[in-house]
Specification:
By secondary structure, the protein is mainly alpha-helical. The chain has helices at about 5-15, 20-25, 35-40, 40-50, 65-95, 105-110, 130-135, 140-145, 155-160, 160-165, 185-195, 200-220, and strands at about 120, 125. A two-stranded antiparallel sheet has the order 1-2. The two termini are about 40 Å apart. The relative contact order is 0.09.
């Protein structure tokens, strides 16, 4: 099955074999199992064949009896301090802003941790209690509107002439990136972006950006 649809089908088939506790950590990942198999070099596949990328999260899963509280605990100890709060702090400091998150006050967190799960997620309605309280002060369209993240315009960036020139660095033969990532797959991605970008799919955009970040990280810390 070609393209993004094929990738999603492969991922869904794989994840359907997992339980809830195993599925959730994969939301943190960048490359799924299908993409790892496609992008990794033969040698890197061999080295990582017996390695599970999510092993470091197992300590937050085992021994927990309540699924929702377990996942919230995992978020609080991993995703928040290692990813989201770091990005917020860096963005704030770049504009001389000292940002604080009131819902992360430790006394508030301790209180909320004792609230029954049914008041946190009610059916498919997440943030149930928070929405109930907020509905007393905010209009309905604010409470029920679709969630909107703080994504960056990757597709616009990658279609700019400046970034397109920099993408050629992904093919540098002496780069450490070539030790881990299949060169042919990179060429295939860059070929899709070489024109007007109309052949690019959403997953392609994400993959190119991830590879560019990985290349930069390897050059800065390991070259």
């Amino acid at each position: 099955i070609p393209g993004t649809i094929g990738t999603k089908v492969h991922e869904l088939l794989f994840e359907s074999l997992l339980n809830q506790e195993e599925q959730y950590p994969k939301l943190f990942g960048c490359f799924g199992e299908y993409e790892k198999n496609k992008f990794y070099t033969k040698e890197f596949k061999r080295i990582t064949s017996n390695h599970n990328s999510y092993t470091h999260l197992e300590k937050y899963i085992s021994g927990k009896s309540k699924s929702i509280d377990m996942l919230l605990n995992m978020d609080m100890l991993t995703c928040l301090p290692d990813d989201l709060l770091v990005k917020v702090d860096m963005a704030g400091m770049a504009h001389s802003l000292e940002i604080r998150s009131p819902l992360l006050d430790h006394k508030f967190i301790e209180k909320v941790a004792r609230i029954p799960e049914s008041l946190k997620v009610n059916g498919f309605n997440s943030k149930y209690l928070l929405k109930k309280i907020a509905s007393q002060y905010l209009p309905k369209e604010c409470i029920e509107r679709k969630k909107q993240g703080f994504g960056v315009p990757l597709e616009y960036w990658l279609n700019s002439a400046r970034i397109k020139k920099q993408l050629n660095m992904l093919l540098e033969e002496n780069s450490l990136l070539m030790s881990y990532i299949n060169r042919e797959e990179i060429i295939y991605l860059l070929d899709k972006i070489s024109g007007d970008g109309s052949r690019l799919e959403k997953q392609d955009v994400s993959n190119i950006w991830l590879l560019l970040c990985l290349k930069t990280w390897l050059d800065v810390w390991f070259s």
